[in-house]
Amino acid sequence: MSYFFKNLDEKTRKYMLEEVELDIKKNFLYKSLRFNEIGNELYPQILKNAIEFGNEKTLEKNLLPEYFEDDKGKILKIGKYTSVLSTISNRVFSEYEFNKFYIRAILRRAIEENKEAVIYQAKKSFYYEDKKTKTIVGFSIKDPKSVLKSMRLGFKLESSLNLSSNQRYYGLSVELK
Questions:
Q1: pTM
Q2: Any idea where the domains of the chain sit in the sequence?
Q3: Mind listing the pLDDT tens digit for each residue in 91-132?
Q4: CB-based contacts of 11: which residues, under 8 Å, 6+ apart?
């Protein structure tokens, strides 16, 4: 199942591309820890193409296996956290990164157009259905400027809104009202 991006139009895509360029300029574009040298080199253009012509599924499809280290099933240790890499890592990475730039673009539009930015469930999942996610659906972002600033510093939407870090907020995005 794909995300449903309610405001994914040409203006939003333009702002998404500008946000990617901003991250590239600041040398802040996040790249998968699983990328090999080729993946690291090609990812920015693959991301921009997906934003311009597709969606998160386009990004996932174009991140070919040869762009990744052969590490499925290996244990990845980052600081005190460990994770087993799986076949869904590419999908989750693609969904998160595309949605991140979409949210940043929507926040910019909310500021520019003086509209409300509201959280909605963009993707449903049987695995991550929970009451916490449902309680913030429909939540209006009161200060889109500060949330955008926080997200540009690398914080997730949930952290930018000071939501509990102990909870998974899967499939959320932002729309204009």
A1: 0.86
A2: 10-176
A3: 889 999 999 999 999 999 999 999 999 999 999 865 455 555
A4: 109
